[in-house]
Specification:
Layout: H1 13-21, H2 29-48, H3 54-89, H4 98-118, H5 121-133, H6 139-169, H7 174-204
Helix pairs in contact: 2-3, 2-4, 2-5, 2-6, 3-4, 4-6, 4-7, 5-6, 5-7, 6-7
Length: 205
């Protein structure tokens, strides 16, 4: 949550970034990754609005709007988790609550990154369609949207990996760690797809 405790969707961008710039636990990098994804989704929604095919236009705009709204909600949820994560790590080493609290919060923090990253899945196919069938005047925006989604996914992957490592050290279940590793690999592959798409579009500009 932002310094003003207002939801990200109701906070002016400048004020949200000012809160992010403060040396406090919340919001942090996970929330920033979600806001970047929301921005990429907004670009997808805008670009699709110029498409000639009415069915594809409305379908993609609806998918992108859903992702945009969900990403801002996820940014707020992640900001709260970030504060909880820092508070848990600050518990005294001999505090009996610490081991279980660490397992719980590190797994939750990793899962938060996964949740944000998954919001991009329908947008990849949407961008591929827009690159081939959308208004060619909007191709630069297609490339920018792909780069932004890729940046968000790389950020989410970094957060998932570091939180998964902390969860492992805290004794998280092997099945949980394996699932997080699979999610991180999916993010890597999706980033590659977005990079290739953006490169293809760049070559046309």
């Amino acid at each position: 949550m932002t310094a003003s405790s207002e939801p990200s969707a109701q906070t002016p961008l400048g004020a949200w970034l000012a809160g992010l710039a403060e040396p406090v636990p919340s919001p942090g990098g996970g929330a920033a990754a979600a806001v970047v994804l929301a921005t990429g989704a907004a670009l997808v929604q805008m670009t699709a609005g110029y498409a000639a095919d009415p069915d594809a236009r409305e379908r993609i705009r609806s998918e992108a709007e859903t992702a945009r709204i969900a990403a801002l909600e996820a940014a707020d949820a992640d900001a709260l988790l970030s504060a909880e994560l820092v508070a848990t790590f600050r518990l005294a080493g001999d505090d009996p609550r610490r081991p279980e609290a660490l397992r719980t919060v590190t797994v939750a923090a990793a899962a938060s990154g996964v949740e944000v990253a998954r919001l991009s899945d329908p947008l990849v196919e949407a961008l591929e369609w827009l690159a081939r069938h959308g208004d060619p005047r909007l191709l630069p925006d297609v490339a920018v949207a792909a780069r932004m989604l890729g940046a968000s996914l790389r950020s989410c992957r970094s957060n998932v990996r570091v939180n998964a490592t902390s969860a492992r050290d805290a004794g998280a279940a092997a099945a949980t760690l394996a699932a997080l590793a699979t999610d991180a690999e999916h993010m890597r592959q999706t980033c590659r797809m977005l990079d290739l798409l953006a490169d293809e579009v760049d070559a046309l500009l």
